[in-house]
Amino acid sequence: MRIAQIAGLAAVLLLGCTFARGAGFAAELKVTDGKATQSDKNKPPPAPDQTVHRVTLESSADAHFTATWKVVRKDTVEAKDALVHFVVVKLDRQGQAVPALEPGRVTIECALTMDFAKDKTASGSQPFSIDSPGIYLVRIEAGGDPDKPGQEDFAEIELIVK
Amino acid sequence: MKPLAMFAAAVLLFSAAARAEHFKIELTVKSAMDEPTAHADTDPPPQGSNPRPVCHAKRGEDLTFQFFFTSNFPHETLKNVAVHYYIAPEKEAGKRDMADPGKPMVLEGSFTMDFKPVTGRVGLRQKIHIDQPGTYIVRVESQHSDSDHEHFAALDLVVE
User: Is the peptide bond before B3 cis (omega within 30 degrees of 0)?
Assistant: First the structure.
């Protein structure tokens, strides 16, 4: 094998490792409507053309939801000014990728920035209500770069509101 | 730019002014009639020293509740600070009273995080509606900030 081919293969492997590893955070998410609870922990991001299979929570439009989440730094390298982002956004269908966060779709959105040394955590508890039936994505993500999507670690749950 | 970008970018760009407080806070409730903004005050006393702005709204209308909470402490990172926010019934707008302890809150949430000088910040934007006419206090506050005082911003929401 020629050196250029080896270098190319190494580059592909490195990119693959980066993709699988994410941003070095563990993300946990729990959503409850007071009767039922669903939870998720971070997992590797799906390939761009892959259908997303998420855990679901079915509820009614008059329910009061609470999302609790926690982000923990797992990588030994400190993350400086890391972005943690939480959102509840309406989807057109189950398994849809994260849509554009147009104001009309978004029920609640939060973001924070801080330094994360290894094992450093941030957490939140966000109550919210949903007025109209539909499919909603509840998502916590950490380490994302708005200019480089797909590198963040995340956990997410789909709400099926009837 | 990715979907998350708009609000997250707003949080990233929200900057603290050079003032003496540990935190800079901007709290807003937007209704069809009003969009007042409350700024940082100090506790004690619990009700602070500034009068609370008033937002008027109709029951059931869509409201936007938003705040930005930013470190303004230049010396060191404030660790494990809780940012607590709530909307709760109160007896009367324009008074210094706090939430009515006998009535349940409409909304109550929190974050726990470190606040690094200058860049440490959290922001929230949420659609809400309130179906019961009445007067409500809307407040976001620091807790456990390792100081002899805490910071908050608060406004009154009058729902007719």
Answer: no
Domain range for B151 is 19-159
Domain range for residue A133? 23-161
| Environment class of A12 (CB within 10 Å of its CB; exposed 0-12, middle 13-18, buried 19+) | exposed
In whole angstroms, what is the distance from residue A29 CA to residue A139 CA?
8
Q: Provide the phi-psi class of A158: left if phi over 0, else alpha when psi is between -120 and 50, else beta.
A: beta
Partner A contacted by B108 (CB < 8 A): yes
Query: Which chain A residues have a beta carbon less than 8 Å from that of B2?
Result: 144, 146-147, 149
Chain B residues with beta carbon closer than 8 angstroms to that of A98: 3-4
Question: Measured between CB atoms, which of B8, B127, B128 is closest to A111?
Answer: B8
State the Cα–Cα distance between residues B135 and B158, nearest whole angstrom.
5
| Series of mean pLDDT values for 10-residue runs along chain B (160 residues) | 61 56 93 95 88 95 96 90 96 77 90 94 96 96 86 95
Note the pTM of the prediction, 2 decimals: 0.86
**Is residue A42 in some structural domain?**
yes
pLDDT tens, residue by residue, A23-45: 899 999 999 999 999 999 986 66
Instruction: Tell me if residue A56 falls in helix, strand or coil.
Output: strand
The minimum CA-CA distance between A12 and chain B, rounded to whole Å, is: 24
CATH number of the domain enclosing A38: 2.60.40.3880
The CATH number for B57's domain is: 2.60.40.10
Q: Do B112 and A122 touch (CB under 8 A)?
A: yes
